[in-house]
Every structure is written in C-alpha cells, then in structure tokens.
C-alpha cells in the first residue's frame, strides 16, 4: 500500500461532463467528487419504485489495491427529497475499470411522498476515495476453549448492551 495519494485514471465517457464543470469538488474541503446524472432526458423516480441505474459518464482506474472509491448520495437530495442509493453505498474496487453507475431509489412512501425528477447533468451522488486495510486473520475454530470474547462484550448477543 502506498503512503501517498494514488494516481487515479479518470476516463470521461460523456463529453457533456466538462460543460457541467466536471471534475470538481463542491468546496476546497469537500471529501466527495460530485457525480452527474448523464441522462438524455429527465428521469422520474416514483416512490418505492425499483431503483434506476444512472450513468455517471466516467470510469476510474484506481489501480492501487490500498485504495477504493465509495459512492454516496448527496446529503441534501437524500434528506430533503428522499433520493438514496439503491445499494446504500457503492464500492469501487481498485481493479474495477468499467463505467460508474449510480443506483438511485426514491425512499418516499407511496401515496404520501413525491416523485423525484432527475435532470440531465444534475449532481446526484459523490465519489469519495479512501484507504483500504486488509487485516491478517487469526482463524479460530468453532468450539475452541476460548470462544468467549476477551472483552466480555457480545456475551448477551446483538443489541444486548441496551441504551443509557
């Protein structure tokens, strides 16, 4: 794993992106690179309908296995409008070089929530690059004498610590 930021190959697949200001971060301190909806026509996402795959118009080549990309929904669209990623968070492995697709889903309840209209070029997601750590596992066989956690946590099962 390298100690410095990786050189990431960025292949622009949709020529409209440069006119929309891509690539850019929303501010000098922003963690996420804005991803645009590379659609030909507006897309209407109805509440609770199946997620739609929206092309981001780019592919990346991270190459360094010590790094990956994470695709997140933009905060305002998720909170205000109900737009979330259909897969929660997208993971871009260092060896994936295909087109980035954004799985968009309208979490609003049917009959009570509004449809979400996504315009061509709209910034709908963000790509964050982060380091990866792969631990060395110490394999313990089931039924071993030391099955109890050394910390004592987990003895009562999932959620057993309760709330304060």
UniProtKB/TrEMBL annotation:
Keywords: Hydrolase, Nucleotide metabolism. It comes from the Bacteria. Its EC number is 3.6.1.23. Residues 23-162 form the dUTPase-like domain. GO terms for molecular function: dUTP diphosphatase activity. InterPro entries: dUTPase (IPR008181), dUTPase-like (IPR029054), dUTPase-like_sf (IPR036157), dUTPase_trimeric (IPR033704). Residues 153-164 have a biased composition (Gly residues). SUPFAM superfamilies: dUTPase-like. CDD domains: trimeric_dUTPase. Residues 143-164 are annotated as: Disordered. It catalyses: dUTP + H2O = dUMP + diphosphate + H(+). It holds the Pfam family dUTPase. Belongs to the dUTPase family. This is dUTP diphosphatase. It comes from Methylorubrum rhodesianum. The gene is dut.
């Amino acid at each position: 794993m390298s100690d410095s930021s990786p050189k990431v190959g960025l292949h622009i697949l949709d020529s409209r992106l440069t006119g929309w200001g891509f690539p850019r971060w929303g501010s000098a301190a922003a963690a996420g690179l804005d991803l645009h909806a590379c659609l030909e026509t507006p897309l209407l996402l109805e509440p609770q309908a199946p997620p739609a795959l929206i092309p981001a118009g780019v592919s990346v080549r991270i190459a360094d296995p010590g790094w990956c990309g994470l695709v997140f929904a933009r905060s305002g669209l998720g909170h205000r409008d109900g737009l979330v990623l259909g897969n929660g968070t997208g993971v871009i492995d260092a060896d994936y070089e295909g087109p980035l697709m954004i799985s968009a889903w309208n979490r609003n309840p049917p009959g009570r929530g509004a449809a979400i209209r996504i315009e061509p070029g709209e910034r709908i997601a963000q790509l964050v690059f982060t380091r990866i750590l792969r631990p060395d596992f110490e394999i313990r066989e089931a039924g071993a004498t030391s099955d109890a956690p050394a910390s004592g946590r987990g003895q009562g099962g999932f959620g057993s610590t309760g709330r304060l």
